[in-house]
Write a structure and sequence with these properties.
The complex is a heterodimer. Chain A is built from ten helices and ten strands. By secondary structure, chain A is α/β, with parallel strands linked by helices. Chain A has a six-stranded mixed sheet, with helices on both faces. In chain A, strands 2-1-4-5 form a four-stranded antiparallel sheet, covered by helices on one side. In chain A, strand 1 and strand 2 form a beta hairpin. By secondary structure, chain B is mostly helical. Chain B has one domain. Chain B has eleven helices and two strands. In chain B, strands 1-2 form a two-stranded antiparallel sheet. Chain B is globular. The chains are: A alpha/beta, B mainly alpha. Chain A: GO terms for molecular function: ATP binding; ATP hydrolysis activity. Chain A: InterPro entries: AAA+_ATPase, ABC_AA/LPS_Transport, ABC_transporter-like_ATP-bd, BCA_ABC_TP_C, P-loop_NTPase. Chain A: Pfam families: ABC_tran (PF00005), BCA_ABC_TP_C (PF12399). Chain A: Keywords: ATP-binding, Nucleotide-binding, Transport. Chain A: This is ABC transporter ATP-binding protein.
């Protein structure tokens, strides 16, 4: 049974078929990349998986269970975390508080106990704080812990968003263009922490990415999309030599 | 002595403005809508309490609890049935809708309870404390203490509780809130319930000193001024803005010619907008380059 399976999923916006009969599956423990030219439907796929958009047809399965019409706030509970291409953080809060909200779904205390900060709540908070600190160490965010997001440079914000996704303790992380807007040095780091997330935390990584160097470094399998349709799926070398993929990127040889 | 006396009645009147302003700010922060029927919701709360405590003769504490529950449910239902279908509509339509809602509530209250002013009698009505010449009615003490307690509870709620923190998260970034597992739509209903509950509390607190009639909700306009003075978006600012307006009104009533007291709220608002347009507690971060 695959961790995530898309089954003939389609969605159009007006006359534009953003995603058309797309099927693929992601196995547990993989690093799975989705590539394609601009407008190929990569981000739309992410938004379908995280239930921001409704599928017009087709089904989505998570661990064998259909999640095609699960409300989007339940996605985190299922163990799917995501980041956004242009980061969606709580801008007026510190890094630490942004990460702690990742623990929302794991909180088990009631409002009254919370408001009196009873010993049980205190213990729970200590556990959360410990787990958050582990993520901070993993992604080297110690220096920024108490800074407000609005004051941080873009590259750091992207890392904070990844860190927040990890605080959910997800089974799968959806990374939407983790290297966009980063300098070459930062992009180099991306491949390291993707491996850390995958190997140390055991999370499946599904990412949309343009940087082919990064994609071939970290991916187990790659899905190539163009005009909302699947061109090919395979290992990074297979995809890079696939004639359909070459045509989509480079155009026809005259 | 006179100054102290004015100060106490000003603060107690200001607390009522502050509580209504708090309702404005809560809804605005969470949903980016302005609910101009906030004053009318307070009025409805006062009538519901009047019905339970005086018409049905329930014990006062029970009437208070039931009023808060009924009004919270009213707030949640309003959000669910009237405001939610408006998602995606221009803010101006939503604004017109809430103004219209205010009219409907005023007319509805008049139809149900009549337009004659009523008085909510409470177990503490009429008592006074003499603090060396400063005479304070029990009602005013209850208003001030009640507001203080409510503020403390709200502070703890937003600072520590799971739902309170989820409300803050939702107000800052809905999309991110969704993917942290926060049911954003349910949070909206809860914010409306909370806001209506606070308005009802204001209604119950002010009813013993003011008359309960369908027009009492008009002080919502002054409360709106208070919210802006406080820096629309800041909860402590709303209370402080309310208190400033309440106190200035009292002093204006005594020391200035007739009429000034009623307009002083708007004078403060204008001065504030000229001098410090972001309000006492600025919540909008300056754009950094």
């Amino acid at each position: 049974m695959s961790l995530l399976a898309m089954n003939d999923v389609s969605l159009s916006f007006g006359g534009v078929k953003a995603v058309q009969d797309v099927s693929f599956s992601v196995e547990k423990g993989e690093v799975f990349s989705i590539i394609g030219p601009n407008g190929a439907g990569k981000s739309t796929l992410f938004n379908l998986i995280s239930r921001l958009y409704d599928c017009e047809s087709g089904q989505i399965f998570w661990q064998g269970e259909e999640i095609t019409s699960v409300p989007s706030h339940r996605i985190a509970e299922l163990g799917i975390a995501r980041t956004f291409q242009n980061t969606e953080l709580f801008e007026h809060e510190t890094v630490l508080r942004n990460l702690l909200i990742g623990k929302h779904i794991h909180r088990r205390s009631n409002a009254v106990a919370d408001m009196f900060f009873l010993p049980s709540v205190r213990r729970q908070e200590l556990v959360f704080r410990k787990e958050v600190e582990d993520v901070i160490d993993l992604l080297n965010l110690q220096h920024y812990r108490d800074q407000v997001i609005a004051n941080l440079p873009y590259g750091v914000r992207k890392m904070v968003e990844v860190a927040r996704a990890l605080c959910i303790q997800p089974k799968a992380v959806l990374l939407d263009e983790p290297s966009s807007g980063l300098n070459p040095e930062e992009t180099e780091d991306v491949s390291f922490w993707i491996e850390d997330i995958n190997e140390e935390l055991g999370a499946t990584v599904i990412m949309v990415e343009h940087d082919m160097k990064l994609v071939s470094q970290v991916s187990d399998r790659v899905l190539a999309l163009a005009d909302g349709q699947v061109l090919a799926t395979g290992t990074p070398p297979e995809i890079q030599q696939h004639p359909e993929v070459l045509r989509a990127y480079l155009g026809d040889a005259e | 002595m006179e100054v102290l006396q004015l100060l106490v009645s000003g603060v107690s009147q200001g607390c009522v403005y502050g509580l209504i302003a708090l309702g404005f700010v809560l809804i605005y922060k969470a949903t980016e809508m302005v609910n101009f029927a906030q004053g009318e919701i307070m009025m409805l709360g006062a009538f519901v309490a009047f019905t339970f405590a005086n018409l049905l003769g329930w014990p006062f504490w029970m009437a208070v609890i039931m009023t808060l529950l009924v009004m919270a449910a009213f707030g949640a239902l309003t959000e669910r049935l009237i405001l939610r279908p408006m998602i995606g509509e221009p803010p101006f339509s939503v604004l017109m809708l809430t103004i219209g809602m205010g009219y409907v509530l005023r007319a509805g209250a008049g139809a149900i309870w009549g337009n004659e002013p009523r008085t909510l009698t409470t177990p503490y009505s009429g008592g006074i404390v003499d603090l060396g010449g400063v005479i304070i009615g029990y009602e005013n003490i209850v208003i001030i203490v009640g507001t203080a307690v409510l503020c403390l509870v709200l502070f703890l709620f937003f600072r520590y509780s799971r739902v309170g923190i989820a409300m803050q998260a939702t107000s800052q970034n809905q999309l991110a809130a969704y993917y942290m597992g926060i049911p954003v739509k349910r949070i909206y209903s809860l914010v409306w319930a909370l806001s209506a509950g606070i308005a009802a509390t204001a209604g119950i607190l002010v009813a013993p000193v003011a008359l309960v009639d369908p027009l009492m909700g008009f002080i919502g306009i002054k409360a709106f001024a208070a919210a802006i003075v406080g820096g629309f978006g800041s909860l402590p600012g709303a209370i402080l803005g309310g208190i400033i307006i309440g106190v200035v009104e009292q002093f204006a009533a005594l020391y200035l010619p007739p009429g000034f007291s009623e307009t002083s709220a708007y004078v403060i608002l204008l001065v504030m907008l000229l001098v410090r347009p972001e309000g006492l507690f600025a919540t909008m971060l300056q754009k950094k380059v």
